Every structure is written in structure tokens, then in C-alpha cells.
Amino acid sequence: MLSPIAWRTPPRHYGPWERVVSLLTEGLVQKGVDVTLFATAGSITRAKLHAVCPMGYEENKDLNPKVWECLHISEVFENAHRFDLIHNHFDFVPLTYSRLISIPMLTTIHGFSSPKILPVYRKYDATSYYVAISNADRAEELTYVATVYHGIDIENFTLNMTPDDYLLFYGRIHPDKGTKEAIDIAKKANKRLIIAGIIQDHEYYEKQVLPYIRPPHVEYIGSVGPERRNQVLGNAMALLHPINFNEPFGLSVVEAMACGTPVIAFNKGSMPEIISPGVNGFLEKDVDSALEAVKRLGEIDRRRCRKTVEERFTQEIMVNNYINVYRTVLNTEADRVKLSQVRFQKRASA
Questions:
Q1: Which residues contact 238 (CB under 8 A, 6 or more apart)?
Q2: What domains lie within the chain, and their CATH numbers?
Q3: How many CB atoms lie within 10 A of CB 342?
Q4: Under 8 Å between Cβ of 249 and 137
Q5: 4-19 per-position pLDDT tens digit
Q6: Distance CA 333, CA 86 (A)
Q7: Which residues contact 229 (CB under 8 A, 6 or more apart)?
Q8: What end-to-end distance do the CA atoms of the chain give, in Å?
Q9: Buried b or exposed e, range 169-180, using 16+ CB within 10 angstroms
Q10: Residue 344: is its pLDDT beyond 50?
């Protein structure tokens, strides 16, 4: 299992890819699968931990990301002979090693940072295996073995039927995530807004967010780790997710629903695959329509939000789906080997 090394696995606070890798790894171990996790030193796992990077490079700015990424990725492939399958969660770079080994590699594509990285995926499309994290995030020119939605450890999220009277923005502070739009929605709705998340775009924060921080009306509480996440999400009357990009999945959306908190999101990317309007939230087109959705929050039964996660987005469901994918990949590889042997025998006897 190849995890990113921006943060520890699992992350102390922010780190969605590392969080998914951790949940998948621990779920596989629970089912008796022999897993070696390649992650940062200090990562917490019941699998076998293999680490060369001392800590996440986002946690220690003295670490050169490119240097440690190269050391980390090469370590996996130099040990590839020990495994039946490599599951890559490290984006496109490991694909460039994949034809140097004889075992198959599965890559979960956690979204495309830019169309400019697609040539790498196209080059290895015929010899590697891809999983999408939503149907909306599939690239038409690529071949996928499956779509597997992220799952969460639902037992660590509590259904709260009596929330406080505040709206929540929970995610990285960046124009893509729509922090300023969340402020506008809350202001127009005359509702208190709590903002939680890392500041990823500091210029955006300084110009579009900080001037509007006026506790208790608009409050920024920083990045929220697992120990506080349940409280912040569960006490919100709704999660605001006014995204300005095609969201590949949206862990925060599912985590909020697990607490019974409905989600008001802009209708982009994977949101229609997660949100059923009037059932667990609302899909809107802009700030004004989102304002109308705030007025309709009383129509949502918070128990139905929780049920969405129980039925579709748990760790158990994700793990089982990936086990099915692993079987498909290994069976396909076995068939390829048999076909290759038959062709060799025919040539040898000709």
C-alpha cells in the first residue's frame, strides 16, 4: 500500500488521501489481508510499516518534497518482488516505474490536479489498472477497472439530532472550496458561521476571508483533528460546500452526513452522486439559491443523512469493494500469464 508522504498516515488533522489509505489498510488487515504500508515514519498501523521518510514534508518544511518522494516511491518498487500487488495512492509518478516490475499495480486516482498530467495516465492505460473515486471524476480517455467511493469509520461519528444554530465551512481555505461564498451565504442568511480547515491559499485568506472574521458571527477555528471533528460537524445545522471546481469526492460531505448534518453544496463534480436533494442536503447553483436552501433545512431528517453513509460510504463497504477489485486485477493478470505461455508454446513448436 503506497501512501502519500505529505502528512502522517493517518493524518493528525488534514490529509484526506492519507486518511483514506489508513482506513483501507486497517480494514484490510482486519479481514486478514497481509499488507505492507509504505508511509512516513511514525505512521500508525496494524500492517507492516515500511518507512524511509522521517515525517510528512508538510509537517517539516526542512524536508525537500521531491527528494523524499523519490526515495519513498523507489523503495516500493525495489521491494516489489515481495508482493502480489501494489496499490498506489501517490498520483501519477509511480506509474513511470510500473513497467519495470512484473507484478501488477493498481492506482486509485484521487482527482486530477491538472489536465497536464493526463499524458502519463494515457501512456500506462493498457498496462496498469485505474480506480476512480467517483463517476464524475473519470477521464473519458482512460480505462477503469471500477469506481470505488471513499468510506469512513462511521463508528467515530455520532448522530446529533439537536444541533446548534450555526453553519459550518469545513475544508481547506482555497478559492476552489468556496470559503468566501460560504461567508456570503451565512451573512445573507443571518446565521453564525464557523470556518475550520488549513489555510492552503494564504493570499486568498488574507484578502477574501480574514476581513470578514468577526467572532462570534464568523469565526475561524483552524484545522480540526479527529478528536474535535465529531463535535464541530455534529453541532452544525448544515455544512456549506459551495465549491468552485469539480469536486472528485468530498470526504467532509460524507463525514458531516454521518453526524446527521445535511450538506448544502454547489452542484459540481461528484456532488450529485452523494447528495439527494431534500433527503440529505441540497444541490444549488449559486449563493442566492443556497440561501433558499438554508431556509429549507427544517425539511431534512438528520437520521436520513446518517443512513446515507451507513448504506453507501462506510469503511467496510470501501474495503469490500477494493477486495473485489484486487481479485479482478489478479485474475486478469493470471489470464494474461496463461495467454502468454500458450503463445510462447505455439511459437516454440512452430
A1: 167, 168, 261, 262, 263, 264, 281, 294, 297
A2: 16-151+315-346 (3.40.50.2000), 154-310 (3.40.50.2000)
A3: 10
A4: yes
A5: 999 999 999 889 999 9
A6: 13
A7: 255
A8: 43
A9: bbbbbbbbbbbb
A10: no
Report cis status (omega within 30 of 0) of the bond before 216.
yes
Evaluated on CA atoms 340, 343, 349, 350, the torsion sign reads negative
Interacting residues of 300 by C-beta distance below 8 A, sequence separation 6+ = 262, 278, 279, 280, 281
Q: Which stretches does DSSP call E strand in 253-331?
A: 263-266, 281-284
- Is residue 120 within 8 Å of 107, Cβ to Cβ? no
* C-beta of residue 150 within 8 angstroms of C-beta of residue 254: yes
- 52-56, 177-181, 305-309, 341-345: least confident range: 341-345
Q: Are 145 and 131 in contact (CB under 8 A)?
A: yes
Give the list of residues 6+ apart from residue 342 with CB closer than 8 angstroms, or none: none
Please state the rounded mean pLDDT for residues 211-238: 94
Rounded Cα distance, 155 and 325, in Å: 25
For residue 226, the model assigns a pLDDT of 82
CA distance 57 to 222: 20
10 prior amide bond cis, ω within 30: yes
Q: Which three cell numbers stand for residue 185?
A: 451565504
Torsion of CA 276, 280, 283, 286, to 10 degrees: 180
Going by C-alpha positions, the residue among 142, 200, 150, 153 that lies closest to residue 172 is 200
Q: What DSSP letter does each residue of 314-343 carry, written as one string?
A: BHHHHHHHHHHHHHHHHHHHHHHHHHHHHH
Q: Give the pLDDT confidence of 61-98 residue by residue, as tens digits.
A: 999 999 999 999 999 999 999 999 999 999 999 999 99
Mean pLDDT within 139-144: 97
- 3-state SS assignment for residue 48: strand
Average pLDDT of the chain is: 95
Considering only CA atoms, give the Rg of the chain. Answer: 22
Tell me the C-alpha distance between 121 and 125, whole Å. Answer: 6
Closest Cα to residue 143, out of 162, 164, 126? Answer: 126
